[in-house]
Automatic annotation (TrEMBL):
The lineage of its organism: Eukaryota, Fungi, Dikarya, Basidiomycota, Agaricomycotina. InterPro entries: DNA/RNA_pol_sf, Rev_trsase/Diguanyl_cyclase. It comes from Suillus luteus UH-Slu-Lm8-n1. It comes from the Eukaryota. This is Reverse transcriptase domain-containing protein.
Length: 52
């Protein structure tokens, strides 16, 4: 899970993460990757900008 305040900050963080994955030859499953979500369920709890 990667959080950010601005869209540009999110893009910067994702570029770094994807770059590291490429460098270490790690693959990500598109079916399991969800980007630009404002809320999600993580370890059974709803995580949103307002908190858990």
């Amino acid at each position: 899970m990667v959080g950010s305040i601005t869209f540009n900050e999110m893009l910067t963080k994702l570029e770094c993460i994807f770059g590291c994955c490429r460098e270490y030859k790690l693959s990500l499953s598109p079916m399991k990757c969800h980007v630009f979500m404002t809320e999600t369920i993580f370890i059974g709890a709803m995580v949103a900008p307002q908190g858990v």
